[in-house]
Write a structure and sequence with these properties.
mainly alpha
Amino acid sequence: MASKAAMIGTTSPTEADTATEEREGLLHHLREQEIRNRAYEIYLQREGHPGDELQDWLQAERELTTN
């Protein structure tokens, strides 16, 4: 059986670390969805003409970052 001192030095994530990572992952996912939705709105505003997906995404990021 390992001693407490040996267990403290382990590299396995704690529950707090895991919760933080899950929260950050969720926030990233929500942010990406927000950008995706805004990019789609931009696409619709230009009447759905294809070919500018990257520009739509970058514009959406800029708009949401400055707000």
